[in-house]
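Fold this sequence, please.
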Amino acid sequence: MSENTRMTRAAVKRKASTAFATADEITVSKKRVVLGELTNVVVPNQEREIHKPKSTLIPAKKQTKNAPIPPPPPALDFESGSVDPQMCGPYVADICAYLREMEGKLKQRPLHDYIEKVQNDITPSMRGVLVDWLVEVAEEYKLVSDTLYLTVSYVDRFLSAKPIHRQRLQLVGVSAMLIASRKYEEISPPKVEDFVYITDNTFTRQDVVSMEADILLALQFELGCPTIKTFLRRFTRVAQEDFNESLLQIEFLCCYLSELSLLDYTCVKFLPSLLASSAVFLARFIIRPKQHPWNQMLEEYTKYKASDLQQCVGIIHDLYLSRRGNVLEAVRNKYKQHKFKCVATMPVSPELPLAFFEDVTIRDLKPCVGSC
């Protein structure tokens, strides 16, 4: 190899190392939050600026004039699943049965009364403040919704096993999100330093890593548990079959109602499949208040009758109307955005007709009149 060739390669290596060093020095400013000592008094959220990183991995497609508009995707064949292979049509029955069995296992479930039985320094409102803040963190780092649901599940399961002082509750939250993003869900997760920074450096890197280990041990490394989002994907497909309205509208509305349920400690006792079914029930009621929101097809696929959903739907309905958790604004502000069709601003009746919770198999399911 000639001397000139060696010098050229050395120059290329020096240039590449300089480029990477420069990239590492680039930081994105993020709003840092200190929850500190959580109390029942919640300070209203301030306006925050979200910095959207520019993606350099996938170049934008050039728009051409008179480009043909692609037709809308055809309705899913629920029996064969031939339209969308990601819905795993040939195996759907086995998958659903497995998920329903898995969600009921005790080691996958938090205690429904862990705050009363395990925790001595944490209240339901403190948990609500933490979850509300985690919604903001997930938005800040552009995390997928599955990461948020897994994070809340890990928090509840960990708090069901180990008492924590209120000053370390925020540490539990960021460490659980670190696990959900880096160990399970995200392709490009935030770094440990990012989670330290978002708490305004209240905790050190070692604090986060140590709490991460504690959570993993408490969960016995059982990280793959079904969440509300797991069931909501398939249930919303069924819910859209007889709707002519925007399919995105009912999908976003179901997601909004599901995330509202994360805020309320009372909802911990419900199975994820029941919470997902309740979100679908209430979303259909909000969009079509005069029509029965449940039908035999939904009952068949969710395995729940309308009467099974009454208590859970009532709680989520109160959350939607701000009768519960009215000081928690992160989820509401998130779904007031145009990219989510402003579903958080949709009007809803203050009362749920009791007739809607009757067994749908004995009703003709025509638009409700009279007493409704």
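The CA atoms of residues 52 and 344 lie 23 Å apart. Confidence is low (pLDDT under 50) at residues 15-29, 40-67, 69-82, 362-372.
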